[in-house]
Amino acid sequence: MRTSLLISAFMILLASTSAWAFQDEGTVRIGLLEAQTGVPAPYGLQGLEGTRIAFDEINAKGGVMVNGKAVKLAITPAPNGYDPGADSALTVALIKKLMQDDQVLMIKGTSRSQNTEVAFNYLNELEKQGSPIVLLSSAAAAPGLGKISRWGFRDAFSENDIVDREVKLLAEKFGVKTAGLYVVRDNSYCTVMEQSVILPALKKYGIDVKVTTDGLDSDRDLSRQVEQLKAANVDAVFVSGTTLPSIGLMKEAARRGFKPKFWVGTVGNITTEMAKLGGPTVERMIMGSSFAPGAPQIKALADEYKKRTGQDINLFGMNGYEAGYLIKDAIEKADIANTPESLHDDRIKFRDGLEKASITSITGEKLRFSDERDTVKQGFIITIRNGEFVEWDGKPTT
């Protein structure tokens, strides 16, 4: 008799605890799925902290209005969300956990194009099963990802236009005639950039590709690749790679006395590690960015980011920050109820709200999602000077 009573009391307690959630607890649960270890960590950690700063600012001003009540945005699970690293299978497993166990409204992540491609395809499976959810990435920028799923959104930075501008400048202003490519093959973003963006731009402006060399994320000996580039004696080298192999390539080039007129990187090279670990050998490499470092309007955000992390904010941190405000705007446009019972319908309403979301970024640009659910940004050409990213002054690498 006593055991039965205890079980009944426990079940009542469980029922009352599960009902005390969402709107009753004064929060909207936002799942976070950013890489904090492994190859994508430099991108994921920036995106994580940028979003956290945005949420803290929003919450300090009262939060978001939901069903007539001001509630706070809650990173779930606190304080850092989940870390999928570079593991696509783990990414899918954690999406399931965030949906079913953590009961989040939407998911902010992931931090790598390969993980995001797998995740976006999984979103289509969830839609077929009748349990859809939004995934918003502020890092995955591989061309074409936005076409995969209507539940996949990106506040990343597409390099298509900025690479075109870079190549045009090299050809028309600096007389660059020949180029070499270095591509990290086990990173889908790097390969897609080569095939869909860099090669077409070089062909458009008549720059002859003399050599293409490649490697893996894990490569640390880049002597073969440098020898191939050096033998071709090219004017410019385009580096479609992640941080560590790109640093290794440029350091090996310096050691072997190979000095092209231009080193041209991609957003994969916009990391604190690139600027600090690369030292003098990566100075003046140029690349595209969604904002100009040092712009006066971002000073307060840059200072806050550095205070929290000891590092400079970069494109990925800025994207994460913008994503936080896009999430806020979408929630307030979505008319959600924010209860356990309404969660399925709320997820659908949030998607519709995000499609209509519009903000003025701290950079000054007005952001909204395109038909392929990507934000469109003007872009700037930046470079590395004295260990920091700055707007490019229009001078060659060497």
Can you give me a brief rundown of this structure?
The protein is α/β, with parallel strands linked by helices and 398 residues long. It folds into 2 domains: 2-158 and 298-368, Rossmann fold (3-Layer(aba) Sandwich), CATH 3.40.50; 160-265, Response regulator (Rossmann fold).
Structural write-up:
The protein is of the alpha/beta class. It has 2 domains: 2-158 and 298-368, Rossmann fold, CATH 3.40.50.2300; 160-265, Response regulator (Rossmann fold), CATH 3.40.50.2300. 43% of the residues lie in helices and 18% in strands. It has 12 helices and 15 strands. A 6-stranded mixed sheet has the order 2-3-1-4-5-6, with helices on both faces. It has a 4-stranded parallel sheet with strand order 8-7-9-10, with helices on both faces. α11 crosses α12.
CATH architecture of the largest domain: 3-Layer(aba) Sandwich
Helix content percent band: 40-55%
Biggest sheet features = 6 strands, mixed
β-strand number: 15
Rounded mean pLDDT is 93
How many structurally independent domains? 2
Mass-distribution shape: elongated
Spans of at least 5 consecutive residues whose pLDDT stays below 50 are 1-20
Widest sheet, order of strands: 2-3-1-4-5-6
What is the level 1 CATH name of the largest domain?
Answer: Alpha Beta
Count of DSSP-assigned helices: 12
Radius of gyration: 23 Å
Quickly give the structural class.
alpha/beta
CATH homology group of the largest domain: Response regulator
Q: What separation lies between the terminal Cα atoms?
A: 86 Å
